[in-house]
């Protein structure tokens, strides 16, 4: 079976190249696959994607799965003249993408990558930092579409390919009611999710567009030239693409040094999964590089220290376990005024309790008494439940505008 670097695998490799070796292998459980929060974000993305397609009436969807049939169907449509394609397929060597929207007009192809991310600016310059470099909050989105543009350009050098991001416009106001309810989610048997259109979705019925299309060609050229960061990466963007693709195709592991974001690794196992014979990618990385045995993973490590900003520095020194660090590694432990714990005091307390296996909670009794004395009765406890969605429910609302839909008010006399 062919092993292609897709845009989702490329995105995964940008977070940690080693993950390419673990992804999609049943022996390595992926905690993100069952992450309810990520699934909720994905559901918002499905609706934004469906709404974006409605803004391009006449677009032709390519529903075929796999590689060969979608590629063939895309080629056939591109040969017909001006056309809009949803989920067009392109392959260059061992790179493969499915593009959200392809708009072909004459010799020009508009590549449109749809994201549920909000945008409050006017053009791509609003994605740059004050120093003129790509803002880190936009990296994964720009790199995604830059990867796609590279594949399409190499596949079809005869076309002028222009890249765009289509985003939720925070400045747009919905001019119709029920916009969100026009896009219903339906789970499919293969575990994927489909969007079912409810009612009329012509551009007139949808009202003013709440998505904005931003051309990002200028930024992508900076990415290709290595000028998107103040300190350029040692390997160029294009070379990284092919490095990832070649290693993935050969199913070879890219060794990534231990780093602070290992804590976020999704390829970790629960004790129950290990009993079932599943493998932990996290443990394999640390075992191979540190020569750790299973018992070492039972010891508290520095990745779990709350709000600790010196993790990279200590990892560089070879300090991985809490038992190996000293107060000097934490920082200044001088108490703050009024006896309130400082951040570093709290960190050192956590380290001591973890190393000594002290599970007793720390309670600042005097501090609590002081706070209680400030209370004036009656006490009011108010809680709100809110919703922030990319596609507004009601006329007059903006994408991601916070809407309170339930509250509780309890009074203690």
Mind explaining what this structure looks like?
The protein has 413 residues and is α+β, with helices and mostly antiparallel strands. Helices cover 32% and strands 19% of the residues. It is built from 14 helices and ten strands. The protein has helices at 7-15, 19-22, 36-54, 68-78, 139-155, 203-206, 217-225, 237-249, 271-275, 281-290, 311-316, 327-330, 343-355, 365-373; strands at 60-61, 83-92, 95-105, 108-119, 160-169, 183-187, 193-197, 211-215, 379-387, 403-412. The strands form three sheets. The protein has a six-stranded mixed β-sheet. β6 and β7 form a beta hairpin. The model has no long low-confidence stretch (mean pLDDT 93).
Question: What are the salient characteristics of this protein?
Answer:
about 425 residues; alpha+beta; two-stranded antiparallel ribbon; 14 helices; about 20% strand; globular
